[in-house]
Design a protein that fits this description.
Elements (H helix, E strand, L loop, with lengths): L5 H21 L6 H27 L8 H26 L7 H42 L1
Length: 143
């Protein structure tokens, strides 16, 4: 796999924005709107960074793994690992007091769940597009 998929990196940015918005609904703290907006934008930037790292690692895989199922599975696995590591690093760097470890674990699980669902939806859309393409090609052969 030689090329990085820029479209997936852009999708990761918007997925990061979506995750940032979802996490704003979970957070019940009192914060200014501008602060919340910055958090959402930072989440989008982190999503782009995760997408960039995921696509770079995926592009380094051997070509024998280039079928669709394997690609989507490996890509999802890489994205999950990078997301979990990055979230853990952010918590450690910010030196958060982890008295409420359950809250941290639930946030990590929510984020990883959203990433998994997004990758499953992406695979489903890919399969649907392939099915439509085959149907269109068959209709062209009939004419």
């Amino acid at each position: 796999m030689e090329k990085m998929n820029v479209q997936n990196m852009i999708k990761s940015f918007f997925l990061g924005l979506f995750i940032g918005v979802v996490l704003q609904f979970i957070d019940q703290g009192e914060a200014l709107f501008s602060y919340r907006l910055l958090v959402v934008l930072a989440s989008g930037s982190i999503g782009f960074l995760i997408g960039l790292m995921t696509e770079w690692l995926t592009s380094k895989l051997p070509i024998r793994l280039a079928n669709a199922k394997t690609y989507f599975f490996v890509n999802n696995l890489i994205a999950l690992v990078i997301t979990a590591l990055l979230m853990s690093a952010v918590i450690l760097i910010t030196n958060r007091n982890l008295e409420n470890k359950g809250g941290f674990v639930s946030i990590v699980l929510i984020v990883l769940g959203i990433v998994c669902i997004a990758n499953l939806l992406d695979y489903g859309w890919y399969r649907r597009a392939q099915h439509k393409l085959k149907t269109f090609q068959a209709s062209l052969k009939d004419k």
